[in-house]
Amino acid sequence: MIDVMRMDGEFNLLTDGAGIVIYSVGAIKCNEGENFFQKEFSSPDKVAEHIAKGDIIGFNTGSSGEYRIKVREGYPSEQIISEYPVAIRLALDVKGGKVYVIDLLWLTEWSDEVPEEQTIVLDDGIYHVTVLTRKPESGIWGDDQEIYLYFQVIDEMPEIMWKGVPYLFKE
């Protein structure tokens, strides 16, 4: 478990789907084993609705694969921005003090049991979530790819106007 308010953290996330999802324990209600993906996250319009509310956010990684997730507090420095030029900014409403980072396909068979290393402890509130990456040295998206997640507390939910699924890759 990463406590982003006290330290930087890092974990590996192996995905079967071409996306990563972030949500807080108290913002989404779903029954064990339910197909949340089909019900609430399978169309670009539905994804955009959730992103606007900030209850569950996600992005398309362009590929399944192995990702090194690096969690940080605040906003990225100019150096990180220049080194990791593929970036998006979302917002998340944190309720319940825990945030989970999961493979998109986790949503097809919901489970409240998320691995501890994929759990981030945050105070309740609204956060800008800045997500940055770059193409791996191999040139293959998802091949031991680094993704930074920066969490910065803000006063209120900003207007997030995605017209579909955010993409965290470039062709």
Largest sheet: 5 strands, mixed
- SSE ordering: EEEHHEEHEEEEE
User: Kindly state the mean pLDDT as a whole number?
Assistant: 93
Strand order of the largest sheet: 1-8-7-3-4
**Beta-strand proportion:** 35-45%
Itemize the secondary structure elements and their pairings.
Blueprint: E1 2-3, E2 9-15, E3 19-24, H1 36-41, H2 44-53, E4 56-60, E5 65-73, H3 78-83, E6 86-94, E7 98-103, E8 119-121, E9 125-133, E10 143-154
Parallel strand pairs: 1-8, 5-10
Antiparallel strand pairs: 2-5, 3-4, 3-7, 6-9, 7-8, 9-10
Annotation keywords:
171 residues, mainly beta, 5-stranded mixed sheet, 3 helices, 10 strands, 40% strand, globular
Describe the structure.
The protein is mainly beta and 171 residues long. The chain is 13% helix and 40% strand. It contains three helices and ten strands; from the N terminus they run E-E-E-H-H-E-E-H-E-E-E-E-E. The strands form two sheets. A five-stranded mixed beta sheet has the order 1-8-7-3-4. A five-stranded mixed beta sheet has the order 2-5-10-9-6. The longest helix is centred in the N-terminal third of the chain and has 10 residues.
Brief synopsis:
The protein is mostly beta strands and 171 residues long. It contains 3 helices and 10 strands, in the order E-E-E-H-H-E-E-H-E-E-E-E-E. Strands 1-8-7-3-4 form a 5-stranded mixed β-sheet. Strands 2-5-10-9-6 form a 5-stranded mixed β-sheet.
